[in-house]
Write a structure and sequence with these properties.
11 helices; Beta-Lactamase; single chain; five-stranded antiparallel β-sheet; alpha+beta
Length: about 250
């Protein structure tokens, strides 16, 4: 098992989400957590998590599990997601068995538990990260092998939980600094350049002059950027691209 300090040094030096996620999956696997599901939103309100297309989602679960969990809205009724919204820190999945025993889970929550069991998602821990904004929330689910009981996971956590929390907190903070492109929301180099000039406060005519293009072409790039990001205004497009660290990125 590689040292924690070596892992932290490597992950803080990661230049892409793919590189970071690969390292994190392998490191968590050393502790017996073979499947991970990370989610983060900046668009949470009192009644919504925002558009799922704007979530930052990283997972090594099988694609059919991830697709169903997100696209069919199962996450909305997942007991540990509910826990993460109300708490910060780490929680054993043993709490779900206790809640089920006491009859404290809704029918929709029980359906999510059954869905997880069918996919071998039975024992693990959830870490809910601290938020600095009322509209943001992030959490990660760490899942053990399907034949590992929760009591064994709890034993692992008792021994290594403090280190696991530190490593996941650092990974989360690093994720927030790296460019992320949601499915179907990639911007072209021209679209990003135009948004960057808008972010700098330039007018349409200024941008046209700087880029050697016509104002009509600039507006076309802005329209396509708004469509890709699924927003109505250019200001929203600048904000969303900035949130996902797509603007002013150093090319490597």
């Amino acid at each position: 098992m590689s040292s924690i300090s070596a892992y932290l040094e490597a992950i803080t030096d990661a230049q892409t989400l793919e590189e970071l996620w690969d390292m994190h999956v392998r490191k968590m696997g050393e502790y017996g957590f073979v499947r991970l599901f990370y989610g983060f939103t900046r668009y949470r309100t009192e009644t919504s998590f925002g558009d799922p297309g704007d979530f930052v989602v990283l997972t090594n679960h099988k694609q059919d599990y991830a697709n169903e969990f997100i696209s069919k809205g199962l996450y909305l009724n997942a007991p540990m997601v509910h826990w993460a919204l109300k708490h910060e820190g780490a929680c054993s999945w043993g709490i779900m068995a206790e809640m089920a025993r006491k009859g404290e889970l809704t029918q929709e929550e029980l359906k999510v538990l059954e869905f997880n069991r069918r996919h071998g998602v039975r024992a693990g821990y959830t870490i809910s990260f601290k938020s600095v904004s009322q509209r943001s929330k992030g959490a990660i689910g760490l899942v053990a092998e399907s034949d590992v009981p929760q009591c064994e996971v709890d034993r692992i956590w008792a021994e290594h939980g403090a280190d696991l929390i530190v490593m996941n907190n650092v990974a989360h903070l690093k994720i927030l600094t790296l460019p992320y492109t949601g499915p179907g929301r990639a911007l072209t180099k021209r679209q990003l350049e135009v948004l960057e000039w808008v972010g700098d406060g330039k007018t349409m005519q200024d941008i046209a002059t700087l880029m050697g293009l016509t104002p009509a072409t600039i507006e076309k790039h802005l329209r396509l950027a708004r469509e890709s990001l699924n927003v109505e205004t250019t200001a929203q497009a600048v904000l969303k691209a900035s949130f996902h660290n797509q603007m002013f990125v150093v090319e490597r």
